[in-house]
Structure formats: C-alpha cells, structure tokens
Design goal:
It is a single chain. By secondary structure, this protein is an alpha/beta fold. The chain has helices at about 35-45, 70, 100-105, 125-135, 145-155, 190-195, 200-220, 225-245, 255-265, 265-280, 300-320, 390-400; strands at about 5, 20-25, 55-60, 85-90, 95-100, 110-115, 165-170, 285-290, 330-335, 340, 350, 360, 370, 375, 380-385, 405-410, 415. The chain has a single domain (about 5-425), classed as Alkaline Phosphatase, subunit A (3-Layer(aba) Sandwich). The strands form 6 sheets. It has a 7-stranded mixed beta sheet with strand order 7-8-3-9-12-6-13. Strands 1-2 form a two-stranded antiparallel ribbon. A two-stranded antiparallel sheet has the order 4-5. The radius of gyration is 22 Å and the shape is globular.
Length: about 425
C-alpha cells in the first residue's frame, strides 16, 4: 500500500508531535482504481494553467535555525550577540556568512541573502504555518505554497508523469488545506518507494484494469462524500510513477559514485534526489533538515549540524549551475523563525520571530546580493522588511503567475492566495 506522509514528523521543545499518514490504495488486485485515476488526471489537466518549467527546492531547517550563525553573523555586534562560530568571507566584498559554512560561502555570488525576513511569531506551530502558507491559520486550512503551485500547474508533469509537488520529509502545514487532498504533496518514502515496481506483467495489469472498469460504478455509488475524488490525485501520481519512466528519478543510485560523494551523507542524498526530481519535471520539492532548536550550547550543536548542510547545499547549487538548471530552479533555505539575538545562560539561543532565516539561489532571479538589514544587535529589520507573503508573491512571479492569483473557496468565493504580499523587487 502506498503511504503518503501528512503533517511533518518530529517533536520540538513545545511538545508539538507531527506524524500522520494517508494510505491511498494498494497496487494489488482492486486497490488501484484506475478509472478514478484517469478522471482525476483529465480534471487536473483542465484545471491547471500552462506555466513555465521552473521548479522550487524548498529546504526547511525545522526547529528554527539561527539567523545569526547562518547568514547574518554581524561580527561588529557585542560579543553576546554576534556569531559564536565566527564568519566566512564570500565572493561579494564585505559580505560574510556564519563560520561553519565555508563551502556555501563560496556560492554566495549565486545567492541572495535576506536579512530582514520576519513575521513576529516565536511559536513552532504558528511560525511554520506563517512561512508555509503566508497566514496565521490556527485551523490549518490555508493551502501551502506547494499545493497552490500544484493547483495552478496541474498535479503531474504532462510529459513525464512526475508529480508536481513532492515532499522528502514532511513539514507541518505543507498540505492542500481547503484546496483539497488532490493537491497534497506526494511522499515517495518507505513502503511507497518499494511499491513503485510493478509485480505483474503488462497483460495481467491490463486485465485487472478491465475488471476495475466494471467496479468503478460501484465505487462511485458507495462514496458520494468527495473522499474518492480527493484521493484520485494521489492515486494518479502513484499510477504514473509505477508505469512511467518518472520512477527512475527517485533512485539516486543511478548517479555516479563521484556525484553521490560530492553531495555527502543522508541530507546530501535528499538534495541530490530533489535535483533529480526537478530534472524529471517536479515543480515543487520540500526537504526537511531538522535539529535547529538549539536552546543550549549552540556552538557545539552547529559544529555537529552544519557540515551536512554546508556540503549538500553548496553541491546542489554548483551542480544545478553546471547542468544549466540553476536559472530554472529556485533553491530556498528557511525555517519557522530565527533565534534570540542575545546568547542565553546555557550558551544557546531561544525562539525569535522578529527576524528569521532566509536565503535563495537561482530561479532566474537576481542573485549575488544582500536584501534588507538587521539592527545593530540583530533584533529586528531596520531596512526593507520582508514578510512570508512577499516571498510567496515572488515565487508566483517566478512561475509566471499573478501575485493576485485567486481560486474559488469551498464557500464559492474567489479568494486571493496572497492578500498583501508583493514580489521582492530586488530579485526581479
């Protein structure tokens, strides 16, 4: 049975536990309701808007990565505020980043560092929802950015069958919300990955399809609640992956040993997988690299956590550039909030929503710059404050969508996906 992750996994200091699963049918005798798949594919194709071939790789540093020791070290600040890991010089004169990211530092001329990204919430739950959806939505019904793009673009790539929206490690509030289950991310992990291989030949599979045709009317009569319709999008993705060539994109072992070594360990392999998925037509890929809730001994924690990020993200940016993919692939590095500017008594940093971590690379946007400015003690933006809705509007622009994109709500009202955000002018 294919199992798709729902809300994100893990537990943070506030006790939020995040794991649920949506099981959407076996690839056995009658679980894969093919007629439903074909109807869903037709509906999604008609609903989608032809867009450009841009992709987003959304790297989520769950737990709330420090904005100081990542991309705004500010070594001129008092010792209890500035980066405890020092700084690394970059190719841009006068611009440095945190001292545990020497390889990413070499790529900063291909990046934009936003030092004024903020939303004000220091809650894991609320901060995540704000960055993932643009709204403080306590009911978790606002659609995520990835789901919005899927609704606009269609659930699968018309040429390859690759799902538009894929999650590699789920994130809270990364779902379809009121747009519906069809626009959730597909999560190809665990048993789902094993199920991408068909265990019967094409003739037998075709025979099963004929039987499923005759069962379809029964299925539709049994379930008039809309649940089957919602699951069609998931099952469509599973079917396309199983029978199409897109499934090969999920196998990083097809890469050379040299390329895999370049990206590094587990997180690096996830980044390599994201690159392969975008190459095969995915439009939005989520990754979750956790462990950033560093309330104590942040220097030691960063020395443990940073190397995989440094190696993997630098390899991703360089690889995309070498393959001619960087202009069509926007890499976003962010999390739910930043950390307190002043180091606490345990040599750590606590939650801080008044400044957050954000860096971007590629996407055909204007790179090699710093946007915004933090205060002398890294507490608040002093120039060019950027809100999550501004980031969303910028991504809409990259895809060729209007910042005033609307969809019809379940109540039948045209609803703006972003009400107040504006594209970040420095990037476009």
């Amino acid at each position: 049975m294919l199992t798709f992750s729902g809300e994100s996994t893990g537990r943070f200091c506030d006790g939020v536990s995040r794991r649920n699963f949506l099981q959407v049918g076996s690839l056995g005798f009658a679980g894969l309701t093919l007629p439903n798949l074909l109807r869903a594919k037709d509906a999604a194709t008609k609903a989608g808007t032809p867009l450009n071939n841009k992709s987003v790789i959304w790297i989520w540093l769950s737990g709330g990565a420090t904005h100081v020791e990542t991309f705004d070290p500010k070594m001129t600040a008092p010792s209890e505020y500035r980066s405890v890991t020092g700084e690394c010089k970059t190719p841009i004169p006068g611009v440095t980043i945190g001292g545990t990211f020497p390889q990413i530092a070499k790529c900063v001329d291909k990046m934009a560092l936003v030092r004024s990204f903020a939303h004000g919430s220091s809650s894991h739950r609320t901060g995540t929802t704000l960055v993932m959806t643009g709204y403080n939505d306590r009911n978790n019904m606002k659609p995520s950015l990835g789901s919005i793009i899927t609704k606009a673009r269609g659930t699968t790539h018309p040429g390859t069958g690759m799902p538009t929206y894929v999650r590699i490690g789920s994130i809270r509030s990364d779902g379809g919300g009121w747009l519906g289950a069809r626009y959730q991310a597909m999560s190809p992990s665990g048993q789902a990955r094993k199920d991408m291989t068909v265990s019967v030949d094409n003739d037998r599979f075709g025979a099963r399809r004929g039987l499923l045709d005759s069962l379809d009317t029964i299925n539709r009569n049994i379930d008039r609640t809309g649940q089957i319709e919602g699951l069609d999008g998931f099952e469509q993705q599973a079917f396309n992956l199983v029978l199409g060539d897109a499934k090969d994109a999920f196998d990083v072992k097809k890469e050379s040993a040299k390329t895999r070594a370049r990206y590094g360990g587990r997180f690096g392999e996830q980044l390599l997988l994201a690159r392969r998925l975008c190459e095969a037509g995915a439009g939005f890929v989520n990754l979750n690299y956790g462990g950033w809730d560093m309330h104590s001994n942040i220097a030691r924690s960063l020395k443990s956590r940073s190397p995989q990020m440094d190696q993997g993200i630098s390899a991703l940016i360089e690889d995309l550039d070498e393959r001619g993919m960087l202009d069509d692939t926007l890499v976003i590095i962010t999390g739910e909030f930043g950390r307190t500017p002043r180091v606490n008594k345990r040599a750590g940093r606590d939650h801080w929503g008044r400044l957050c971590t954000l860096a971007l690379a590629g996407g055909g946007l204007r790179m090699g710059q710093v946007i915004g400015k933090s205060s002398a003690k890294l507490e608040v933006p002093t120039e060019r404050p950027i809100h999550p809705q501004d980031l969303m509007a910028t991504i809409f622009h990259m895809y060729g969508l209007s910042p005033k994109l609307q969809f019809t709500s379940p109540q039948g009202r045209p609803t703006y996906m972003v009400e107040n955000g504006r594209p970040i002018k420095e990037l476009i």
